[in-house]
Every structure is written in C-alpha cells, then in structure tokens.
Amino acid sequence: MSELSVKHLLGIKYLNKDDLKLIFKTADHFKEVINRPIKKVPSLRDITIANLFFENSTRTKLSFELAEKRLSADVINFSSSQSSVAKGETLVDTVNNILSMKVDMLVMRHPNPGAGVFLSKHINASIINAGDGAHEHPTQALLDSYSIKEHLGEIKGRNILIVGDIMHSRVALSNIFALQLQGANLMVCGPKSLIPKYITSLGVAVETDLRKALQWCDVANMLRVQNERMDMSYFPSTREYTQQFGVTKTLLDSLDKEITIMHPGPINRGVEITSDVADSKQAIILNQVENGVAIRMAVIYLLASKIK
Ligand code: NCD
Q1: In degrees rounded to 5, what are phi and psi of residue 184?
Q2: Which atom of ligand 1 is nearest to the CA of 57?
Q3: Ligand 1 pocket: which residues have CB below 6 Å?
C-alpha cells in the first residue's frame, strides 16, 4: 500500500493496520533524513500549513513546526491567546479566514473533543489532530508505537501498561487504539476515580496495584495528571497519588525484570516519576521526542500526497 486510507488524521480510531505500517515505513526514511548533515528535503515546497493551537503546547508544536520545515513547507502559526477567538469569532470563521489565504493543511490542537471531526465537515483542507481535549492525540500514539518497536522489535504480544490519569488523557485513548491494532496486550493502572468504566469494554485490563502492574508489563507509559481538565478533586493529595502511583528507581530495581519507561511529557518530576527514573537508561523519553519529528514528517507527507 502506498496511500493512507484517510484524507485527515483525526484519530487512530479511523486508521487501519496498513496505515500504521505505511506511516512507520515512511518515518524510517525521514528519521534517516533528519540525521543527515542537511536535515531537509524539498518534498512539500508547494504546500502551506497552518498550525492552530487553541491550547498550550511546547513539544508538539515545536515538533510539528520542525517536521513541516524539514519537508520545506511554508508554515504559519497561530495561538488562540493572541487571536480574535478571544474577541468572539467562531472556530469555523477563524479557520475559513486562514484558509482563504490559500492554506492546504491544518494542524490543530483544541480543548474540545471532536473539534477536528467537526471542522473536517465544514472546510476543505486536510486536518491533523494535534490533541482534542481528552479525546485523541494520534501523532503522539504513532510516535509512541514507533519508539516501542524501535526499542523492543515487535509490538505484537507485548504487555503495555499505561499509568495515571486515564480518564482525562487523549494520549491513553490513542495509544490503546494504536497498540491494539498491532496486537499488544494492554493494562491501565491508576486511582479508580481516574479510570473510566468503559475501559474494560475496549479489552483493556485494569489493575490498581502499581507493583503488580509493573511486574506484568514490558513497557510502562507514565501519564501526567491533567489537573487543567479537572473540575473536582479525584484523589486526596498529590503526595498520596505519588505514594501509590509514582514510579521510583527503588521500585523499578525491585522488579525481577527490566521494563521500559515512557512519558509523553511534560513530566512532573517527583509526581508520576522521580528524576532518577526519568533520567535512567530504562527511560526512552527523549527517543520519543526525537521520533516525533520523523513520525510527523511521515504523516504530513502522506496526507499532502492526497491533496494534489
Ligand atoms: C500530552 C498532551 O498534550 O496530551 N503532551 C504532549 O502532547 N506531549 C500529555 C500531557 O499534556 O500530559
């Protein structure tokens, strides 16, 4: 297969196994490109991309921008705190104004789940979801799977654990969809109040004892507690959360195997993982960030080839 089955990347939910294979194969090529002295290819010289960030971001925004520039696309950036959204303009109006400046592709982060899906019905450009509220964050899940494959070989049959605030995490949902497509076994662990009831219906196991969960897994993906998405308190205090669900080096060293630690960032050092875990050999957190650029180059390149 040489084409994606979709015109937009709105969520992993809309992709199939062949799409993932094609994205990973294309990312292999771009990973080689970005390790060359000249880290740039002219592939998208005729494409203009707008990065619309209606929610905070560091890594994802920089990663998309670098990916676009390394493909030689023209890039414009927009963040809602500095825009007319604050003056009451609707999302469709804001985006249509941007598109009338002849933009071909939008990368959008938005606090509302389904914002990308909504927009895809109203506008005529390719959309990449860079995180929509607590719903999906497809490029993060793609770079996570790519990093696991790179580190461990096959994903099929591997035990992957996701720890923390499953309820408010778009990284959790997109990872679950992506890893299941590739045949992984999945488990989540966290405070019961932060694990949605529907999770077992997705075929994901639930464990509230962190030590048992870590003992089961090959890889633990540690998530940040999404305080900004909470309107009430889901656990007694950060200290208690850390005592029960924080990973320390002592805990890792007490397991009878060496597991791989992942984190999408931003890390709250000393909350979900301690510094010595974040900086240990077992952590592949910075490899994830590196792979993010190659994965985003692959996604943008493949979607752009459907525009022409
Ligand atoms: C994640 C996000 O924004 O969903 N971060 C990221 O994209 N690297 C996770 C988070 O904010 O905790």
Answers
A1: -80, 160
A2: 3
A3: 59-60, 131, 137, 140, 170-171, 224, 264-265
